Structures are given as structure tokens and as C-alpha cells.
Amino acid sequence: MTPRVAVLVPVHEQAAFLPRALESLLAQEETAWEAVVVDDGSREPVTVPADPRLRLVRTEDNRGLGAALNRALDETTAPVVAYLPADDVWFPDHLATALDRLADPAVVLVRAELAEPAGTPYAQLVQVVYRRTGDRWTERAELETDDLDRLMWARVGARGTATGTGRVTCAWTQHPGQRSRAIRESFDGGPNVFRTRYRVAGPLRFASTDGSDLDEEARYARFRSRTYEAGPDGLSVLVVGELAFNPERVLALAERGHRLTGLWTADGLGDATVGPLPFGSVPDVDRDSWRDGVRALAPDVVWAQLNWRAVPFAHAVRTAFPDLPFVWHFKEAPQRSVVRGEWPLLADLVCGADAVLLATEEERDWFALALSGRVDPARLGVLDGDLPKRDWLDAPPSPKLSDADGQPHAAVVGRPSGLDLDWVLALAQRGVHTHLYGQVRAPGPKGSWTGWLEEALARAPGFVHVHPAVGPEDWVRELSRHDAGWLHRFDSANGGDLRRATWDDLNSPARLPVCLAAGLPLLQQANPGSRVSVERVLREDGTGLFYRSADDVAAVLHEEVATRAGHAAALAARDRHTFDAHADRLVDLFRSIAR
Question: For the whole model, what pTM was predicted?
């Protein structure tokens, strides 16, 4: 029987689901099909039932969804193409119903209904059946995204009529191992979750329907083109955990002749950078045999970091190799470790490491109180572990928007923490522009803007502006157009007692050095009588614009537009807020504990 439909079945680490999917294929009312299961680098065995219409092909390493589906297209010839991912299910009439719609020669693509909606603007693989057109799937080297319209559907649909069947003939299975969840920020996904799950070896071109596009190939080209030579007395440094927002900072050590090797947590967040690092020059220890790898490497020092997600893995490495010199470098947030039940692990790291670096003086003092009697405060140092590389400062600034319109403009880089509809409208009424950069649909506070942004745009046209995320290569060029940057807006109630301190009180926001790089002073709500780390730093540097009300914000911004005093202070301070400025001090610490 000549097959009418080519069925493409991609699978990666989902062998447990596959029998259910293939059973639903074998139960189809339409029997004239050929099927290819593409095992895209699974590390678990994948098998298929014996049926002459069904074949299994394998790739040694994961090459990505696009490459797997193109391989399946090449392995089949039927004039109609359908998709059955290993974790999804067809109902018996799925193919027959789709073929009925495709009997109309004007129809090129058919979309079935799902048993439960996917909640995405694009059709899922399991829904779509179309005429073979010769179009190819976009592959990893060009783009990885959850948006299947961008990867294929838009090209096929442009060749004729796309229509729905109006019938529920398939089910899309929602579970933690879905590819889309590794991509989308609303499920705690992102480029580094994706990188870890699929073991991506090089830089990514990446896009999520929850956020903005990212091109690591372009971003890190300047670093990938460099060669770093180990010096005769260079240290071997094992970097453990994750590197958060500014991973290229570690190259400041490679520039100084030290050899870096990475060992990364598999339980990170989407924006918490893990390896293989997209800028190269830092080889990885194999995470599947990391104990053997660390033993063979025998590093001079372990430099473990950075945020609460890295605590369990850093603790595991410390436990496995108690005799290796160990620096625990922690940024945020001890409160999250308490909530997650990991405070005992964090406490062990702080008390047991040969040296400890914390993000701020206030965080250092908080730990000294919290671990009183267990830790010597003299062993607790201060260095923000997520400072950017100085290279990004070497870019020309842009003209100020306020020089053209006479109105103040303030930028929000990342989530608009503490800003809401009433606040943004109050600023607009006072002639203050709010520029929002890189908003993503994510859980909790990160996504709070979704509840008010549309109304703010409608009620304050011309004063609320939305921009894509701005990467470090564009910090100076893009952000320098503004007059100030927003830090987190919050009320501190610690009254000077760090026992009452919150995460906001102790933290040094990642957006602080970003705005300083562009010469922007920072808008920070004043909290008189409380100990607030970032407020202290801004006052010491002269880079703060302090306020308590919307009237205060308008006043300090208009003064800044008139004098540019904050701008001058930011330019004077910005080098101190780069990692390069502290790299020699860090190396001295490493040498002091190396054995």
C-alpha cells in the first residue's frame, strides 16, 4: 500500500511516553501511513514495535527539534506530513479527519483541535497535518524557539489556505519535560535551562514567546575571537555552580593567565548562565562523571557561586572534595534558601568554606548575625559576584532624549519592581517618561506588569514606552539616551536592625552596574532609619536620586536634566562597578588559600 501520510515522531529523553504515542498511531482509522521515529540523542534506550510502516533512526548527540524533523522529512516520501511527538496522543480519527479537509486542493495546512488548549498562539506539532511543500524546519544554528510559526508553520501556511478541522482529535501532554517549558520564562525556562537540558555546546540564537530574542553568537563574538594563554604561575580554577547575568566576567581571570574549568548545576534558572559557556575558553567537566573529572583536574582552588539555586550543588562539590581549597561566592538570597529548606546547606557552605565572599556589607553583617558563634566574621569578605566585564563600557553614548524634548526620561531594565499602574500614571501626569526594557512573562513578581501595562499605555500615551531587552553590547548606546535608571522601589522596615532585613535590604541589584555603565544615576526610594545596601552605595558614590513620592521623582529628575550632576557621578563610579576592577583582589584571595 502506498503511504498517503508521513508521520514524524521526534523523541528526546521521553522513551517512557513513546509507547502511548505509537499505540495511538497504530490505532488510526487511516492505515496508509509511513512513520519515522527520530531519537535525537537520548541517553535512555528508545525502541519501537515491529511494524513494516514504522522505522527508528538515531543521532548520537542532540541536534535540536528542527534537525530531527528535517531528518524525518528526508527519510519519508508520502505527500502529506503529520507530527506525533513522543509525549502526545492522536485519537483514532485524527489522520482521516485531516485528510478529508485536505481533499480541497486550496487547503495546504490543517489544524486539529486539542483536548485541552495549549495556551499558545501557534499550533502544536501534534495538531498539524499539511501537504509536503519542500519547506524545511529552521535548525538550531539559526534559531531555537518555542514558536512553531517561526520555525515552520508560517512558511507552509503562506502557500495556500490554512484551516481547522473543528474536531478534537489529539491531546497535547503537559509535563515538566516539555521542550517549550525549557524555553518559556513563564515555566522558569530560558536559554540556560534549555542549554542544560539539551547539552547545547555552542552559543544560541534563542527566542521565547514570553520574552525577547537573544543572539549569543553576536553578543560574545568579541570574546570568542580572543586567545587566552595560561601564565607560568597561573592558577587552575574550577568554577562551580552558575554565573547569573554577566558570565563573561570570569574571563578577567583568563586574561590574567589563569586556567578556568566549569562544573555547572543542572538546576538553574533560564537567565542563570551555565556552560558550555557561549563565549568559549572555559572547558567543562563532564557533569555525568564530575567526581572523576574533578579528581583528574585537581584544581588549585574551587570558586563556587552564585545564587540560591546553586547552593545544593555547591554543597555537594564541597562535600565530595573537602580537601580542595574552596571559595563560596554568594550574591542572593539567603531568604530563598530558608524558604526552600536549604538553609542548613547554605550555612555549611558559609561556615566550612576556606573563604567566603558576599555581595554587600549588609549581607556580610547579616550572615555574621545569623551564624553567630559558628563563623568568624573576619572570614567574610565583600564582592558583588555578578558585576559586568569592563569591555561593555567601551561604546559611544547617544544624545539624551531630554535634550530634544525637555522632559525627563527614566529607564527600567528588567522587571519593574515596585512600579504599578498608579505610580506610572502619577509620573506621566508630572511629565516623566517611563521606558520599560525586556519585560518577560514569568511567574510571581517578574510578571506583575502584565496586569497593568496595557491600561498604562492607553491612559498615558506618549509617556509609557516598551522596548525589547537590551543586551550588554547595547547598554551604553541605548540606555545613555535616558536621564536615570530605576532601581527596585520598596519600603524598608528594618529600622537599622539587620535581623529584620529583607532580600531588598541586603541585595545589590544587577541593574545597578548596567545603568552606571550608561552613565545613568539611579532612582532609589529613600528609607531613612533603615539599613539598605544599595542606598548606602549610592550615597557614597553620589549616584543616587532619592525620593519618597512622585513629586519627588519629578523634582530630582528635572534637577538632573538641568545639571547632569548624577550623570557625571555615574561616569566617575562606573569602572568600580565592573568585575575587572576587583579581579586582582580575587586572585590574591585564591592564592592565599591555595595549597
Answer: 0.94
